[in-house]
Design brief:
It is built from 3 helices and 8 strands, in the order βαβββαβαβββ. The chain is an alpha/beta fold. It has a single domain, classed as 2,3-Dihydroxybiphenyl 1,2-Dioxygenase, domain 1 (Roll). The strands form 2 sheets. It has a 4-stranded mixed β-sheet with strand order 1-4-3-2. Strands 5-8-7-6 form a 4-stranded mixed β-sheet, covered by helices on one side. The longest helix is centred in the middle third of the chain and has 13 residues.
Length: 134
């Protein structure tokens, strides 16, 4: 079995969140989804589980972080082009996502930040290694 990563996120509205993540380019895997959680696929080995607060709490004894006011993690998605980065951001913003700051340009890498409805923060970036210094 190949190594895989599942990022589990507590969300207030599973269906609404699924629509935003679909707009970002994720696809839903119904085999691992129900009313309390949606498995969203980014690639062959990268998955985001959008879980209701109750379902998320069933996996831990710790209190949930308020990700609208506190950062709990930064999740980064590499993209194949600037056009892809801008298209995903446009789709996500149209679906209700928030861009909390302007695009960052590091010459070899451009990055845009997206927050979902619950404040989970995604860094979308395109990196051109031919422009990497040194």
């Amino acid at each position: 079995m190949p190594k895989q990563i599942f990022v589990n996120l507590a969300v207030n509205d599973v269906q609404k969140s699924m629509q935003l993540y679909t707009a970002m380019g994720f696809t839903n895997n119904p085999q691992f989804s129900d009313d309390a959680g949606k498995c969203m696929v980014w690639g062959d080995s990268i998955f985001v589980m959008l879980l209701s607060h109750d379902k998320f709490k069933s996996f831990t004894n710790k209190p949930l972080a308020d990700t609208k006011s506190h950062i709990a993690g930064l999740f980064s998605l590499s993209l194949d082009s600037l056009d892809e980065m801008h298209a995903i951001m446009s789709n996500a913003l149209a679906a209700g996502g928030i861009e909390p700051n302007e695009m960052r340009d590091y010459s070899f890498m451009q990055q845009r930040t997206l927050e979902d409805f619950d404040g989970h923060t995604w860094e979308l970036f395109y990196m051109d290694m031919s422009k990497f210094p040194g």
